[in-house]
Each structure stands twice: as structure tokens, then as C-alpha cells.
């Protein structure tokens, strides 16, 4: 996909850079992002919306992969930015991301976080619950600021994805329930608040969704709800935010619809439901994370130990694992991989890829067909761009890998590899303890 190729020597190249050279220059494990592909994914969303005629914002969900360089890139592509913590906000601000296009999310924004966002004048707050509504209003009043607010609703939709990443169902920690009356009450409260400009509502039905039916359902439920709101309060939304969750293909088993199809279905559905009642069309905002960066990321590892259990399995261990990609351990997520130095050789054996952490669950891929594997080979795990680096940890005191952006044969280091000093930076040595 993107600008990944196999060169004459049988090496994997990404963005015109030989993966073997990247591994040598920057070390492994290494996250490599194909910049052209991030831009292409962004533009596919933006162009699809332009064609629809709707006013829109495409907010990149920075939880999928946040660093200063990524926020800069999102700004350049005219995306907006969804942040869910003061840390993501801080990163965006340091990148010089236009504050009016920052949307602040989260189900438990702290007072400190809200103060920071108010100070920065972020573009809007996606208010999740009554506690936050009061807190934000108090802080905004004190600061004498009027803020743009969206209300996050829980539409009561079950989508077919992993339980941990499905968020639209009623029994959820997120948002105001539509069916239990909380959403209606939330609108009433928000409209009564002097410091609030209620832009509209937000729903997010889940992540890694493959088809459009959940989005169609969401639009219909929201529309039925907004009809009641209109009747009771005369309020009409200016903005409809339908969240993220657009699925990508990790292995040949995955078959998501294209970005264009998601946008086309959403815009068609909103147009149909709104035009029918002859009401002004709202702006449509979405928040893709995975579908912008997921397939643009590749992780390079060096293969070390190889343990063959005759007749059972061969464990091929890499120099990273659950610390740089928790998804297989956490969601049984599947990945595809190839040997970057033997990319044109046919498969010769089936092996399982293990990480180096002290956990039996630290397996990246079970049963993958590869050419004959040797220690020292470079393994490229594909489509690791979303929720890999952003969910990375220092378990076993491993140092988090570096991140490079590649394009047109040039590689640029955008996050340095952590050092041993980084690992102990916050440690405090105790004074020598006295002996008894
Ligand atoms: N908007 C909201 C309100 C969200 O909660 C999320 C993701 C997104 C947008 C972006 O969703 P995306 O387009 O990336 O699917 N760690 C999990 C995914 C958790 C998603 C959480 N919310 C994983 O690795 O699969």
C-alpha cells in the first residue's frame, strides 16, 4: 500500500527509503511512517466532503498517534484536531496547531485540563456528562469566556467490533444516553447556560468499523432525537459530529469499505434526513484516527532468538513486542508482516512472532508464512501506525522506539528513541539507609 515497494535487491522500501538502511541508521525497533500515505488518507476524507457540498471539519483523532510532527502535518492538511487530554493538547499547542480547530474530548476532563484549554481558547468542548457541564461553565464564567460546546450522546447502537473499542451501546461510560432521557436533559441544561454556545451534538459508535450501517443508524437515531428537541425547545443543531471509527485492513481477512464510501454514505444520509423536513443542513464533523495513520505505519524489528519446538511451533523473537504494540495482546489484533531483507522470496516456513517481554501473552503474530527466517533478519510488521506508538509503554524498562517519517527517499527523525537516562529521569535515589 502507499509508497511501499520491493526493490531490485528484494528489499522493502517505504517512501523511497530502503527499510534495511532505515534499520541501520535509526536502529530497531523503529516506527516508520509513510508521509505521503498520511497525506493521501487525509485528502481522501477532505475531498470526499468537498464533493458532498456539506460544510465540514475532519478532525484527526490524535489518540491514534500523537507527536509534534504529526500535529504539524495535520495542520498542513487543514485537518482539525481531536484531543482527549492536557497531554495531547500540550503537544498540539507546542506544534502551533491552530487552536480554533482543536476539539477537546474526554469523559473525565479534570479541572486542570479545562483551565488549560480555556487559557488556550480551544475551538470547542465535547461535553460528556453533567459534572463536566457544571465544571466547565463555572470555569468559563470565572474566566469571562463564552465557549463552543458539543454534547456527546450515547445513541444505543451496537457495532460489530471488539468489545473494548465499541462505545455506542447504552451501557457505556461515555456520553449522555438518548433512550434514558439524559440527552434531552443535557440539551436543556446546556441551552440555559450563558457561557455556552451549543454548536450541536456528537456521537461515536466505535472503532475499526467495516461497513456503513452503524453510521446510517446513528444518523437516524440522532435525527429522531433532534426532532424531539426541536419540538420541545425549538433548538436546531448547527453541527453534527459523527465521530471516528472508520476501519482499515490489517490482514487480507479485513475488508472495510473505502474512505469515500464512508463519507458518501454519511453525507447522503444526513442530506436525506434533513432535506425531508426542510431544515437547514448542519455542518458534518468527523474524527478519524486509525484511518488516517494506521496503514501509513510500519514497525521494523531485528530478529534475535529462534526457538524451534519440533512438530509444534517455531517462535521467532523480535527486539520489541507488547511495549511498542499492545494491540495483539489486548485485542487479539492480527497483523501481517514480511522480511524486509527477503521481501521477494516465497514463503518457506510458518512461524510465530514473539516479543521480548516477560509475558507469554507477548506475541505479535501467530502462524505467519515467511521465507526461511534467520537471526539478524529485519521483520517489517505492517499497518502499525495507529495505537502502536500512542499506546507504547516502558514495561520491562524497554526504551520506546524512535519514529521516522519517510517521503521521496528522505527519512526524517520526528521522535528520538528513548535513552537509559529517560528511563530513570523521574527516579529519585534514596539517601543511604542507615543500618540497624
Ligand atoms: N472519536 C472518539 C470520540 C473516539 O473515542 C475515538 C476512538 C475516535 C474518534 C477515533 O477512532 P478511530 O477512527 O481511530 O477508530 N486503542 C484501540 C482503539 C480505541 C479507540 C478509542 N476511541 C485500538 O487500538 O484498536
Automatic annotation (TrEMBL):
<keyword id="KW-0663">Pyridoxal phosphate</keyword>
<dbReference type="Pfam" id="PF00278">
    <property type="entry name" value="Orn_DAP_Arg_deC"/>
</dbReference>
<keyword id="KW-0210">Decarboxylase</keyword>
<feature type="binding site">
    <location>
        <position position="359"/>
    </location>
    <ligand>
        <name>substrate</name>
    </ligand>
</feature>
<feature type="binding site">
    <location>
        <position position="331"/>
    </location>
    <ligand>
        <name>substrate</name>
    </ligand>
</feature>
<dbReference type="InterPro" id="IPR000183">
    <property type="entry name" value="Orn/DAP/Arg_de-COase"/>
</dbReference>
<feature type="domain" description="Orn/DAP/Arg decarboxylase 2 C-terminal">
    <location>
        <begin position="31"/>
        <end position="385"/>
    </location>
</feature>
<dbReference type="InterPro" id="IPR002986">
    <property type="entry name" value="DAP_deCOOHase_LysA"/>
</dbReference>
<keyword id="KW-0457">Lysine biosynthesis</keyword>
<feature type="modified residue" description="N6-(pyridoxal phosphate)lysine">
    <location>
        <position position="63"/>
    </location>
</feature>
<keyword id="KW-0028">Amino-acid biosynthesis</keyword>
<dbReference type="InterPro" id="IPR022643">
    <property type="entry name" value="De-COase2_C"/>
</dbReference>
<dbReference type="InterPro" id="IPR022644">
    <property type="entry name" value="De-COase2_N"/>
</dbReference>
<dbReference type="InterPro" id="IPR022657">
    <property type="entry name" value="De-COase2_CS"/>
</dbReference>
<keyword id="KW-0456">Lyase</keyword>
<dbReference type="InterPro" id="IPR029066">
    <property type="entry name" value="PLP-binding_barrel"/>
</dbReference>
<comment type="function">
    <text>Specifically catalyzes the decarboxylation of meso-diaminopimelate (meso-DAP) to L-lysine.</text>
</comment>
<feature type="binding site">
    <location>
        <position position="327"/>
    </location>
    <ligand>
        <name>substrate</name>
    </ligand>
</feature>
<feature type="binding site">
    <location>
        <position position="290"/>
    </location>
    <ligand>
        <name>substrate</name>
    </ligand>
</feature>
<comment type="subunit">
    <text>Homodimer.</text>
</comment>
<feature type="binding site">
    <location>
        <position position="245"/>
    </location>
    <ligand>
        <name>pyridoxal 5'-phosphate</name>
    </ligand>
</feature>
<comment type="similarity">
    <text>Belongs to the Orn/Lys/Arg decarboxylase class-II family. LysA subfamily.</text>
</comment>
<dbReference type="Pfam" id="PF02784">
    <property type="entry name" value="Orn_Arg_deC_N"/>
</dbReference>
<dbReference type="GO" id="GO:0008836">
    <property type="term" value="F:diaminopimelate decarboxylase activity"/>
</dbReference>
<dbReference type="InterPro" id="IPR009006">
    <property type="entry name" value="Ala_racemase/Decarboxylase_C"/>
</dbReference>
<feature type="binding site">
    <location>
        <begin position="287"/>
        <end position="290"/>
    </location>
    <ligand>
        <name>pyridoxal 5'-phosphate</name>
    </ligand>
</feature>
<feature type="binding site">
    <location>
        <position position="387"/>
    </location>
    <ligand>
        <name>substrate</name>
    </ligand>
</feature>
<feature type="binding site">
    <location>
        <position position="387"/>
    </location>
    <ligand>
        <name>pyridoxal 5'-phosphate</name>
    </ligand>
</feature>
<feature type="domain" description="Orn/DAP/Arg decarboxylase 2 N-terminal">
    <location>
        <begin position="38"/>
        <end position="293"/>
    </location>
</feature>
<protein>
    <recommendedName>
        <fullName>Diaminopimelate decarboxylase</fullName>
        <ecNumber>4.1.1.20</ecNumber>
    </recommendedName>
</protein>
<comment type="pathway">
    <text>Amino-acid biosynthesis; L-lysine biosynthesis via DAP pathway; L-lysine from DL-2,6-diaminopimelate: step 1/1.</text>
</comment>
